[in-house]
Design the sequence.
């Protein structure tokens, strides 16, 4: 066994050796691992603006030319249409100076002259009609009295356009081919005309009895409608087909 005074130097020497080893040991620095490479992003495709859709031009507006003169047969209508809504939306009052025309714009003013006696009356167009071939205008009861039309019921007249409204809505014209008391008959005829002319509609004419009018075609001018009417008369064998304005 080592003596007491020998242990001290040995312990001191061991401690020195340990300190020397620690001094030579390199210190380690913890370095974080590199972050994994991110996947390259694919750039989003550029947004292509929607293609501009070309719109069909609006059909031309067709006012009644000032001073236009037409001749034909006039008739008049009262009950059962009195108090009902006219084609322009207002209530028909047969004791006011108004009238129905097949193609003139609403709010057109027309001077009507009875060729039999020379009497005249100025009327405002608010309705559609007459829906009888070879008639040109349907007068209210009051207008018919002014030119002594009540008794005979019809008369040869001359129409002169004296005021034409400014029109903002496009016009559409068609050809009335028939009028039916039964809606089912009108529906069947409509399908026949739709296949033949690409457009056909049913228009209700309220009254006693109610009539279902069948109108073929849809064109922007009276001239184009008259060409269609001649075709319809020949192909459908309907001699009384005539041009109407569809509002």
Sequence:
């Amino acid at each position: 066994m080592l003596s007491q005074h020998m242990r001290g130097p040995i312990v001191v020497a061991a401690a020195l050796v340990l300190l020397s080893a620690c001094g030579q040991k390199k210190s380690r620095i913890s370095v974080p691992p590199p972050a994994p490479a991110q996947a390259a992003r694919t750039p989003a495709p550029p947004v292509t603006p929607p293609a501009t859709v070309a719109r069909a031009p609006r059909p031309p507006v067709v006012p009644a030319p000032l001073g236009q003169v037409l001749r034909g047969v006039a008739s008049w209508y009262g009950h059962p249409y009195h108090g009902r809504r006219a084609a322009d939306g207002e209530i028909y009052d047969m004791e006011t100076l108004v009238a129905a025309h097949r193609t003139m714009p609403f709010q057109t003013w027309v001077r009507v002259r009875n060729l039999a006696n020379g009497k005249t009356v100025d009327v405002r167009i608010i309705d559609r009609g007459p829906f009888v071939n070879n008639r040109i205008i349907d007068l209210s009861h009051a207008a018919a009295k002014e030119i002594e039309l009540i008794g005979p019921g019809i008369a040869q007249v001359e129409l002169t356009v004296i005021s034409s409204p400014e029109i903002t809505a496009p016009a559409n014209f068609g050809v009335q081919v028939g009028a039916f008391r039964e809606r089912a008959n009108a529906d069947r005829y409509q399908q026949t005309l739709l296949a033949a002319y690409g457009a056909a509609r049913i228009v209700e004419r309220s009254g006693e009895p109610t009539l279902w009018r069948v109108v073929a075609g849809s064109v922007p001018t009276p001239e184009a409608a008259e060409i269609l009417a001649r075709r319809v008369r020949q192909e459908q064998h309907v001699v009384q087909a005539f041009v109407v304005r569809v509002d």
In short: The longest helix spans residues 4-24. The beta strands are 69-76, 98-100, 109-114, 120-127, 135-139, 154-163, 173-180, 200-205, 211-219, 242-245.
